[in-house]
Write a structure and sequence with these properties.
By secondary structure, the protein is mainly alpha-helical. It has 22 helices and no strands. The longest helix has about 35 residues.
């Protein structure tokens, strides 16, 4: 109870801290504006430094979302607005007019708008499949398949790997993770190992498909790689999954778990929804590769077909069936993720406008070289979400070969598996595991996960060159 009461106070303390940081930066800027002791640059301006601190504080709140209960979008949206206010205020002092700031903001909106519509359509399909019990039917079929513990371990891992290539890794991990938790209810050690395996598999599977992860989608939509070029990462992604799985699969309990109950069928219209989902993916790729149009147009066309499909289901609904209102399905979309994406793009865009990303690019690419830099970025994604990491790379826009773009896609995709907090899949499964799967239990397997990470990078370098 005491923790529950203190939690909102902690949240408001951090939010007030963000506002106080801005106020202190503004006051310091006003006091030093007419009397610079040294030649000033935008990056050393107190207002720019305040913007940087704001972003750091906002991201601290993002990383503590599970403890504070504050949705991750709220802090970064607040920071984005304040950062651009600071940028707009300081810009005239460095020869930048408001029209240039305006164009920079709309450049960020252009990038966000296309990705947001693409994700909206994709998430609507995922929500529709969930509403029609597609994932539930798959989950229950696995639970009652009478597999051994070893069979469940490999089945859930393999399905997580391949399913996450077309569905988001969070949904995939939740479906497969629930199977592991129910089947292994009497074997907490199996649950811990099985959930680590699901996290690693889901993150690895999302790395080789443009639809598998936000980072791959961002790279594809930025025009850095063609749709089919991502599949060069299939073998390295398999390696990133199989190497740790081979170690974790040793010493699993013998025998078959006993789970009572019955399976649940999919609801009417589920199979057509799956077919329309595959058609929508085909439309998105065709619009991009064949017609030269943005992929989100193909996704929105596919979403319109889904809406018509749900209209038909609603008009032919019989008593006892659930509502087929498509807008109730859209309401179940992960708006927190979409708005978090907005906040990250505009926070990073503001810092890039000031010049911080150029400084970071110099340190990474000129100082370390592209290969080492991408490995470092991949490891950092175990602590920092891979979305801001990848968007920062895209904002730096370094001159890279296709092999290097593939490398940074691979490392940021699978690097989040190193820690349980490194990906949405890991964070979600800590709740599913009910104490069996924790930060520390995942940490025990970090050496073999790191071995898989290194083996995947080596495999990519060997197969695809650098």
């Amino acid at each position: 109870m005491l923790l529950a009461r203190r939690r909102p106070v902690a949240i408001w303390s951090l939010l007030v801290g963000m506002l106080v940081t801005t106020a202190v930066g503004l006051l310091f800027a006003w006091l030093t504006f007419e009397r610079p002791a040294v030649p000033r640059t935008p990056m050393t301006d107190p207002r720019a430094l305040a913007a940087l601190v704001l972003f750091v504080l906002a991201y601290v709140l993002v990383m503590t979302e599970e403890r504070t209960g504050l949705h991750k979008c709220k802090s970064v949206m607040l920071a984005a607005g304040l950062i651009w206010a600071l940028v707009a205020w300081m810009a005239p002092d460095y020869g930048l007019d408001h029209e240039q700031v305006h164009r920079a903001v709309f450049h960020g909106l252009d990038e966000y708008g296309g990705l947001m519509l693409f994700l909206l359509a994709a998430m609507t399909y995922i929500a529709a499949l969930d509403r029609l019990h597609v994932f539930e039917a798959l989950r229950l079929r696995l639970i009652h398949a009478q597999l051994s513990y070893t069979g469940v371990f490999w089945a859930t891992g393999a399905l997580a790997f391949f399913l996450s290539a077309v569905a988001d890794n969070l949904t995939t991990a939740l479906v497969m993770g629930t199977v592991v938790a129910i089947v292994g209810a009497a074997q907490p050690r199996f649950v811990a190992v099985g959930l680590v395996n699901v996290v690693v598999a889901a993150n690895a599977g999302g790395a080789f498909s443009p639809f598998g992860d936000l980072t791959t989608l961002m790279v594809w939509q930025a025009g850095k790689l063609g749709f089919f070029e991502f599949f060069a990462l299939f073998v390295p992604s398999v390696v990133a999954y199989l190497v740790p799985a081979a170690f974790m699969g040793r010493g699993l309990p013998a025998g078959c778990p006993v789970v009572e109950g019955t399976t649940k069928p999919m609801r009417r219209g589920a199979k057509r929804t799956i077919a329309l989902g595959l058609l929508t993916i085909t439309l998105a790729v065709s619009f991009e590769q064949v017609l030269g149009l943005p992929a989100f147009l193909g996704m929105m066309l596919g979403m319109s077909l889904l809406m018509l499909h749900f209209y038909r289901l609603r008009m032919t609904r019989v008593d006892g069936e659930p509502s087929y209102d498509i807008f109730k399905t859209i309401a179940r979309v992960e708006w927190d993720t979409l708005l978090f994406f907005f906040g990250i793009i505009f926070c990073v865009g503001g810092l890039a406008f000031v010049g911080y990303l150029d400084l970071l690019a110099d340190g990474l690419y000129d100082g370390l070289g592209a290969t080492v830099a991408h490995i470092v970025l991949g490891v950092s994604s175990a602590v920092i979400d891979n979305i801001p990491v990848m968007f920062a790379v895209l904002s730096m826009d370094p001159v890279l070969s296709d092999a290097q773009w593939l490398l940074v896609t691979l490392t940021t995709g699978v690097g989040g598996s190193l820690l349980s907090i490194g990906s949405a899949a890991g964070v979600a499964l800590m709740a599913v595991g009910h104490g069996s799967y924790t930060f520390s239990t995942h940490l025990r397997w970090m050496p073999v996960i790191a071995l898989g990470f290194a083996a995947a990078v080596a495999t990519h370098i060997f197969l695809n060159g650098i």
